[in-house]
Specification:
Layout: H1 23-40, H2 43-50, E1 53-59, E2 62-67, H3 70-91, E3 97-101, E4 117-118, H4 130-138, H5 163-174, E5 183-187, H6 193-207, E6 213-217, H7 218-230, H8 234-242, E7 246-250, H9 260-275, E8 279-284, H10 296-302, E9 306-310, H11 315-328, H12 335-344, H13 349-366, H14 372-378, H15 393-404, H16 408-412, H17 418-434, H18 440-446, H19 453-468, H20 470-484
Parallel strand pairs: 2-3, 5-8, 5-9, 6-7, 7-8
Antiparallel strand pairs: 1-2, 1-4
Helix pairs in contact: 1-3, 5-6, 11-12, 11-13, 15-17, 17-19, 18-19, 19-20
This protein binds adenosine-5'-diphosphate and magnesium ion.
């Protein structure tokens, strides 16, 4: 059951303060304010300073905050007063004032003290065992996973492999109340699921800041739940995950089969949010029907909304990602180097990033731009995703016919028609690249030529085109990719 108290306030609704506010109300207000502040204040600062606030009182339209350490109070006052005020105005009342009670220690004996809400923990500690209290004191509960501000829609490169997922995520972010529920995103590791989830969170925080968004990797949900059980703070746990407008579960596949209680809790959380028309977004590395270790009733829920997959990016998308990420890293690399990386790494976007980071590292140390030779050397240890498939001349002719509609006889003929000549040049270029053991004169012979310099000329010409014409470059890379697959 959800704690009753949470019905006493709404995240968005302001309440006018009357004479007295109960301790329970104060607690709820402060909890809601801190949850808002968490989103605005870097988590490391938040956890250090706000956990030091030990007493909160609301009296006569004043929110009074106290801490033992004056330095903490001074710091909060200096850095976060505006944020606290804004949140308090939004949640409590427009004319609320924030007062810092720096005389906390002197007031110990004051009768009023009893009225104040002790903020050593959000839960009522009175009934807890010593062990549980100790546990609570040690833990960073409630956990909060900060959204990575770099994971935005703007920074997400669209391609045929991910555009459905991107559109679905954007829609869910724009209209979280009216979108398919749940939105279930699935795809392999490193393909952008977490990026999209966080982009939804970042978008909502910016454009619909009155909505409460919670992002939680499923594993952390599980450990959070265990911690809540040990410290007997399940009501608070539930409040945290149910008092939200948008809940995002990342990597749901990590919930173990034997974690029955967690599955049950997810199921009830899901139902609660679903019934209250709150948006649920789930990510996993596979579709629900392949998560056979989860209970059927949970899987049924996951399947009841919109399921969208993300596939490995195609060559063009990989090139675009490399361009964007190298710009972001301020790393100057040529088209040729990017082509090389995107041919080497095909399935993980994270792998593309790792390659760039390595190049950036070396280029910074060596203070020189990265050319293809250096890039190959630096990246030689990367796993080579290319298969060892040996390309044959026949396959090259076939793909030329398919792409340029010029057949083998025409290619071998003396025709100088532009379309035929270009196809011939591409053929020579591909052969030289993919069959490096073949001599130049044998390549020339295969294409009906007697002079090996024609191959050198063709190779040069194609290189020039690649460097000057982006769409040609993409086409050549696609041919290379298809041939090597
Ligand atoms: P997943 O959660 O699916 O394992 P992530 O979201 O963590 O993958 O993505 C791995 C890395 O690749 C992240 O740094 C992310 O920013 C980046 N990435 C993934 N897809 C894209 C994309 N389409 N555009 C830009 N960056 C991407
Ligand atoms: Mg992820």
């Amino acid at each position: 059951m959800l704690q009753n108290s949470h019905k006493n306030y709404t995240i968005t609704g302001k309440q006018i303060l009357t004479r007295e506010n109960s301790e329970e109300n104060t607690k709820n207000y402060w909890y809601t304010i801190t949850e808002k502040l968490r989103k605005k204040i870097p988590s490391q600062f938040f956890s250090v300073f706000f956990s030091e606030i030990q007493e909160v009182t609301i009296e006569n339209n004043q929110l009074i905050l106290a801490a033992k350490d004056k330095r903490v109070i001074n710091h909060i006052k200096k850095r976060y007063l505006n944020e606290i005020k804004e949140a308090a105005q939004e949640i409590i009342s427009d004319n609320i004032d924030i007062i810092f009670d720096t005389d906390y220690t002197n007031q110990k004996t004051n009768e009023n003290q009893k009225k104040k809400y002790k903020f050593s923990n959000l839960e009522n500690n009175d009934n807890l065992s010593d062990r549980a209290k100790k546990h609570q004191a040690n833990s960073a509960y409630p956990k909060y996973i900060a959204l990575n501000p770099n994971y935005t829609f703007e920074r997400f490169i669209k391609g045929p492999s991910n555009e459905h997922a991107l559109v679905a995520a954007e829609e869910a972010a724009k209209t979280p109340k009216n979108f398919h529920n749940p939105l279930y995103l699935f795809g392999g590791v490193g393909l952008g699921k977490t990026h999209l989830l966080m982009a939804i969170g970042n978008y909502i925080s910016e454009h619909l800041p009155y909505l409460n968004v919670q992002y939680i990797p499923a594993e952390i949900f599980q450990s959070d739940l265990i911690e809540a059980m040990i410290s007997k703070s399940l009501p608070h746990f539930r409040e945290k995950y149910r008092n939200v407008d948008v809940l995002m579960f990342d990597d749901i596949q990590f919930i173990k089969q034997r974690a029955e209680y967690t599955q049950e809790e997810i199921f009830h959380t899901f139902n609660y949010l679903y019934q209250n028309k709150k948006q649920i977004i789930i990510s996993a590395d596979r579709p629900p029907q392949h998560l056979s270790h989860l209970t059927d009733r949970l899987l049924n829920r996951f399947q009841s909304g919109l399921m969208v997959d993300i596939k490995p990016p195609n060559l063009e998308t990989r090139m675009a990602i490399l361009k964007k990420k190298s710009d972001e890293l301020n790393l100057d690399i040529s088209e040729e180097v990017r082509s090389y990386i995107s041919m080497r790494i095909k399935t993980h976007i994270r792998g593309l990033e790792a390659a760039l980071i390595k190049l950036k590292f070396v280029s910074d140390i060596e203070r020189k731009p990265i050319d293809l030779k250096l890039a190959k050397h630096i990246l030689k240890d990367l796993p080579n995703e290319n298969s060892s498939h040996e390309v044959s001349i026949d396959e090259i002719f076939k793909i030329l016919l398919k792409t340029y509609h010029v057949d083998e006889d025409e290619i071998k003929s003396s025709s100088r028609v532009e379309r035929v000549a270009l196809t011939r040049h591409v053929g020579m270029y591909l052969t030289k690249k993919l069959l490096p053991t073949m001599s130049l004169s044998s390549i020339a012979a295969v294409f009906g030529r007697t002079d090996h310099t024609t191959v050198i000329h063709a190779d040069k010409k194609i290189h020039e085109l690649i460097n000057n014409d982006e769409s040609f470059n993409i086409q050549i890379n696609e041919l290379l990719e298809e041939l090597q697959f």
